[in-house]
């Protein structure tokens, strides 16, 4: 991309952009609906940072709807799904839960369920001197009448004041029936930061969340459950979106994937509010190798975005993003947002546990068209009808990616990288970059393989690459 004239500071750059016709994000980042990338923890953190997460569908419709509900219930600083125990549980249950979960305080409720009547609380202070593992919690818990509690509706600031005055570590929040609705932890409050960019809907101020569905008739029921759970956007997940299978189930959704204006045309005619662009270019994809179909991502983004813009439909550049430079390029080629898999896998918020290999901390990352993921149910993205399911053809691989730490630091790094890119190109916002693109003021040049080699790190014996 040719540099432009810089007449403004980094902080003046606006990277907000459209996800769909109706949803604008402060950070143009979307986490991919993949089972090693987006479940509720990822979706919550993406939304807090100004982006959005799309919950994958490689689970039952009920589980997926529960994931959506967890994101919608999230209130900064409030734990809305604390682990509860019942007064009939034993000291041994407490020790086991402590060891498994890594924390030591548990509300005690009727039935041991969230939403049950609050009966007490257990903390280290209650369990330190217990010698009999069979002792019932009811005997040694701090009972309800000795607890400081807050009423539902309390603000985070008020809760903070209560904890300060009472010098307690935990504050249970109850409703008028004295049922537990949330728990506030002092340690969490200390970690709380404002998230001024958070993606929220305007009425209930809940975080925005998306979810993917497949293209089979039964996916209509999945969509209904997701809508009931409060999902804000549905992504119809199919590697080749221009098919009769997709067109007749489109709701108010993001359609895809597509890489040509004619595919985009069919999806827009069917009512898509946003388009996902990219085929066979993801880091775990083998579609181009197996099916010989796909398109270079920069060309796909440029041509589809230019076409969709005429219909007022934003596009998401999906896959192949390896750096902040790639994100900047996608936005400057017309994308409203970028969707990432491998960039966001291997963060604290992605599903799965870290493990070590050759001294490097890794997390698993796999294509939804890999045999491993398809065996768990994701073949619906790649297999068109039931007569073909006897032979599965993998269109993806599975592997691992390096640990990138928490999104709380990683997303601000991505945002700052994009701001630097826009600044160098002389554009004060994503919108301006796209206006300049379409008026031929923002210029791209094709790089030869030699120029690409020159553009990377070269000539060093060894080097260390730290991102931030
Ligand atoms: P990145 O490069 O961000 O790509 O890791 C993520 C995107 O790749 C797509 N995807 C696949 N494509 N075979 C494919 O051909 C697969 O197994 C596969 N799994 C995911 C998807 O669009 C995702 O957002």
Automatic annotation (TrEMBL):
Name of the protein in question: Inosine-5'-monophosphate dehydrogenase
One Pfam family named in its UniProt record: CBS
Active site positions, chain numbering: 285 (thioimidate intermediate), 381 (proton acceptor)
Protein activity control: Mycophenolic acid (MPA) is a non-competitive inhibitor that prevents formation of the closed enzyme conformation by binding to the same site as the amobile flap. In contrast, mizoribine monophosphate (MZP) is a competitive inhibitor that induces the closed conformation. MPA is a potent inhibitor of mammalian IMPDHs but a poor inhibitor of the bacterial enzymes. MZP is a more potent inhibitor of bacterial IMPDH.
GO molecular function: IMP dehydrogenase activity; metal ion binding; nucleotide binding
Cellular component, GO annotation: cytoplasm
One Gene Ontology term from the biological process aspect of the record: GMP biosynthetic process
Enzymatic class: oxidoreductase
Subunit field text: Homotetramer.
Principal location: cytoplasm
Keywords: CBS domain, Cytoplasm, GMP biosynthesis, Metal-binding, NAD, Oxidoreductase, Potassium, Purine biosynthesis
Chain ranges of the CBS domain: 78-139, 141-199
Originating organism: Phaeodactylum tricornutum (strain CCAP 1055/1)
Cofactor(s) annotated in UniProt: K(+)
């Amino acid at each position: 991309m040719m540099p432009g004239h810089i007449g403004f500071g980094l902080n003046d750059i606006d990277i907000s952009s459209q996800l769909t016709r109706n949803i604008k994000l402060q950070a143009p980042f979307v986490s991919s609906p993949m089972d090693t990338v987006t479940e509720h923890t990822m979706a919550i953190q993406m939304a807090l940072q100004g982006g959005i997460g799309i919950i994958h569908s490689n689970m039952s419709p009920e589980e997926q709807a529960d994931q959506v509900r967890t994101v919608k219930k999230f209130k900064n600083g409030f734990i809305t799904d604390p682990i509860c125990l019942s007064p009939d549980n034993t000291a041994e249950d407490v020790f086991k839960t402590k060891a498994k979960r890594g924390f030591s305080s548990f509300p005690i409720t009727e039935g041991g369920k969230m939403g049950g009547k609050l009966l007490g609380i257990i903390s280290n202070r209650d369990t330190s001197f217990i010698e009999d593992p069979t002792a019932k919690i009811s005997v040694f818990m701090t009972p309800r009448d000795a607890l400081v509690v807050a009423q539902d509706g309390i603000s985070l600031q008020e809760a903070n004041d209560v904890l300060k005055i009472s010098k307690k570590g935990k504050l249970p929040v109850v409703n008028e029936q004295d049922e537990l609705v949330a728990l506030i932890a002092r340690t969490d409050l200390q970690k709380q930061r404002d998230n001024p960019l958070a993606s929220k809907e305007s009425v209930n101020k809940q975080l925005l969340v998306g979810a993917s569905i497949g293209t089979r008739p039964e996916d209509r029921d999945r969509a209904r459950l997701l809508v009931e759970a409060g999902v804000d956007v549905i992504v119809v997940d199919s590697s080749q979106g221009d098919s009769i299978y997709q067109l007749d189930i489109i709701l108010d959704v993001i359609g895809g994937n597509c890489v040509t204006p004619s595919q985009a045309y069919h999806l827009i005619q069917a009512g898509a509010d946003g388009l996902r662009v990219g085929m066979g270019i993801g880091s775990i994809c083998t579609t181009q190798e197996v099916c010989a179909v796909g398109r270079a991502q920069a060309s796909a983004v440029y041509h589809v975005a230019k076409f969709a813009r005429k219909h007022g439909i934003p596009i998401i550049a999906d896959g192949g993003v390896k750096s902040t430079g790639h994100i900047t390029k996608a936005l400057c080629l017309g994308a409203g947002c970028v969707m990432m898999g491998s960039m966001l896998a291997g963060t604290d918020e992605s599903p799965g546990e870290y493990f070590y290999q050759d001294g490097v901390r890794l997390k698993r990352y796999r294509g939804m068209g890999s045999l491993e993921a398809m065996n768990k149910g994701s073949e619906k993205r790649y297999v068109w009808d039931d007569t073909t399911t006897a032979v599965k053809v993998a269109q993806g691989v599975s592997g691992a990616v390096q640990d990138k730490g928490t999104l709380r630091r990683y997303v601000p790094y991505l945002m700052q990288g994009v701001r630097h890119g826009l600044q160098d190109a002389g554009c004060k916002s994503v919108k301006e970059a796209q206006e300049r693109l379409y008026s031929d003021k923002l210029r791209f040049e094709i790089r030869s393989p030699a120029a690409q080699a020159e553009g990377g790190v070269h000539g060093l014996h060894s080097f260390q690459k730290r991102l931030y």
